[in-house]
From TrEMBL:
<feature type="binding site">
    <location>
        <position position="188"/>
    </location>
    <ligand>
        <name>FAD</name>
    </ligand>
</feature>
<keyword id="KW-0472">Membrane</keyword>
<feature type="binding site">
    <location>
        <position position="186"/>
    </location>
    <ligand>
        <name>FAD</name>
    </ligand>
</feature>
<keyword id="KW-0249">Electron transport</keyword>
<dbReference type="GO" id="GO:0015035">
    <property type="term" value="F:protein-disulfide reductase activity"/>
</dbReference>
<keyword id="KW-1015">Disulfide bond</keyword>
<keyword id="KW-0813">Transport</keyword>
<feature type="disulfide bond" description="Redox-active">
    <location>
        <begin position="393"/>
        <end position="396"/>
    </location>
</feature>
<keyword id="KW-0256">Endoplasmic reticulum</keyword>
<protein>
    <submittedName>
        <fullName>Endoplasmic reticulum oxidoreductase 1 beta</fullName>
    </submittedName>
</protein>
<keyword id="KW-0285">Flavoprotein</keyword>
<dbReference type="InterPro" id="IPR037192">
    <property type="entry name" value="ERO1-like_sf"/>
</dbReference>
<dbReference type="Pfam" id="PF04137">
    <property type="entry name" value="ERO1"/>
</dbReference>
<feature type="binding site">
    <location>
        <position position="254"/>
    </location>
    <ligand>
        <name>FAD</name>
    </ligand>
</feature>
<keyword id="KW-0274">FAD</keyword>
<dbReference type="GO" id="GO:0071949">
    <property type="term" value="F:FAD binding"/>
</dbReference>
<feature type="binding site">
    <location>
        <position position="251"/>
    </location>
    <ligand>
        <name>FAD</name>
    </ligand>
</feature>
């Protein structure tokens, strides 16, 4: 195991370490030789992503997710489903999300008036205008008097800006802060027609599908016919690059969610105490090459593609955060400085990756046609973000909304290159802005993909992590003292 991965796992406890090791030990026999080689539609190979993520990215992104600025996410889990009458929320208690008490939220995050934009902006006269800009999140910025009006215009522009996601109104009474570390993503027992309906709507109504393809795109669909997975994917070759990218991102997002559910599954509940752990049978059902007729490894490759897209977005957005005006503000000056230093270090690493996805290859044809396709692409994804409000399990809805918004933010970044390049150093820009909600979603969504990449690779690579029962016992002992071999 690499030093970076060892450090990242440190402190998570013996139970979590054993859970990960036991799960990974089974993966090698399932898809070991299947998830390799160069990814389609880019020049990057999986082995390069593995080494780069494990040694450079994963240890740092794990630490970043534990910082106060990134662990608290404000979300509205009570928004009604806009497409159909939802049949009620999941009745299983493990579906529940525990909102964070007001007293636990750092003052710089929860109090809009704690943001220090300028002396004038903190005056009574300007408080109303600052409240209008509250949705910009806890970014501690210092503006000159001349820039004050520009700041207010900035907030108004952000309200009308084209987004790839439907953003929650953080000012809504129904919006609450959630501690992501205390509400981890895992399988809660939520399944059946409600869950199937969500994914079916995403795949069948929002992914681009050729008229010649009659079988469902939804991998959960009960009728698969005699078609094997490889021949099913040949229809992708007939789509333009943009539509192929769209499908692979949705498939990668689905694989990401499924991997977390398989690794942290509700196995049983004894005397009111739930037992969580890896469900190998469920993993086989979703990813085994034989049981999925060859589609399982494709789904995992699409997860790598998702990782690559979000990695590219982080490298492109670095100039936004490198400006002195941007401070990840929680109210703790020392911690805030450390958080920004860690974030900038991650950005430097992302920029050093030599095989990024080239987003300039998208929407590069006839200007009129490219603009129309880009808008169609954006609206399809925005619709998917709205479907997340139809998820019946609160915990599933929380992570679905966060990861969808994270990917939507990545897409927004990729297609805002000119605006990012023209950012002023010491004042807000009308051309490109990120809300705190988008920032938290972006880094946490990428953190999920980073974890899953480690999860896959270390389960596939020669079964190095777990050779015997003695190895498991040794892992337990070493984890208990803060080290995992």
């Amino acid at each position: 195991m690499s030093p970076g991965f060892r450090r990242a796992v440190t402190g998570q406890g013996a139970a979590a370490a054993v859970q990960l090791l036991v799960t990974l030990s089974f993966l090698s026999s399932l898809v070991k030789t299947q998830v390799t080689g160069v990814l389609d539609d880019c020049l990057c190979d999986i082995d390069s992503i593995d080494k780069f993520n494990t040694y450079k990215i994963f240890p740092k992104i794990k630490k970043l997710q534990e910082r106060d600025y990134f662990r608290y996410y404000k979300v509205n889990l009570k928004r009604p489903c806009p497409f159909w009458a939802e049949d009620g929320h999941c009745s299983i208690k493990d579906c529940h999300v525990e909102p964070c008490p007001e007293s636990k939220i750092p003052v710089g995050i929860k109090a809009g008036r704690s943001n220090k934009y300028s002396q004038a902006a903190n005056s009574t006269k300007e408080l109303d205008d600052c409240e209008q800009a509250n949705k910009l999140g806890a970014i501690n910025s210092t503006l000159s008097n001349e820039s004050k009006e520009a700041f207010i215009d900035w907030a108004r522009y952000d309200d009308s800006q084209d987004h790839f996601c439907e953003l929650d109104d953080e000012r809504s009474p129904a919006a609450q802060y959630v501690d992501l570390l205390l509400n981890p993503e895992r399988y809660t027992g939520y399944k059946g027609s409600s869950a199937w309906r969500v994914w079916n709507s995403i795949y069948e109504e929002n992914c681009f599908k050729p008229r010649s393809v009659y079988r469902p795109l939804n991998p959960l669909a009960p009728s698969r016919g005699e078609d094997d997975g490889e021949s099913f994917y040949t229809w992708l070759e007939g789509l333009c690059l943009e539509k192929r990218v769209f499908y692979k991102l949705i498939s990668g997002l689905h694989a990401s969610i499924n991997l977390h559910l398989c690794a942290n599954y509700l196995l049983e509940e004894t005397w009111g105490k739930p037992s969580w752990g890896p469900n190998i049978k469920e993993f086989r059902r979703r990813f085994d090459p034989v049981e999925t007729k060859g589609e399982g490894p494709r789904r995992l490759k699409n997860l790598y593609f998702l990782y690559l897209i979000e990695l590219r977005a982080l490298s492109k957005v670095a100039p936004y955060f490198e400006r002195s005006i941007v401070d990840l503000y929680t109210g703790n000056v020392e911690d805030d400085a450390d958080t920004k230093t860690l974030l900038l270090s991650i950005f430097q690493d992302t920029k050093s990756f030599p095989m990024h996805f080239d987003e300039k290859s998208m929407f590069a044809g006839d200007k009129k046609g490219a603009k129309s396709l880009k808008e169609e692409f954006r609206l399809h994804f925005k619709n998917i973000s709205r479907i997340m409000d139809c998820v019946g399990c609160d915990k599933c809805r929380l992570w679905g909304k966060l990861q969808t918004q994270g990917l939507g933010t990545a897409l927004k970044i990729l297609f805002s290159e000119k605006e990012i390049q023209n950012l002023p150093e010491n004042s807000p820009s009308k051309g490109f802005q990120l809300t705190r909600q988008e920032i938290v979603a972006l880094l946490n969504a990428f953190g999920r993909a980073s974890y899953e990449t480690v999860f896959i690779i270390y389960g596939l690579e020669e079964n190095r992590l777990l050779h015997s029962l003695e190895g498991t016992l040794l892992a337990v002992i070493m984890a208990a003292v803060g080290r995992v071999c």
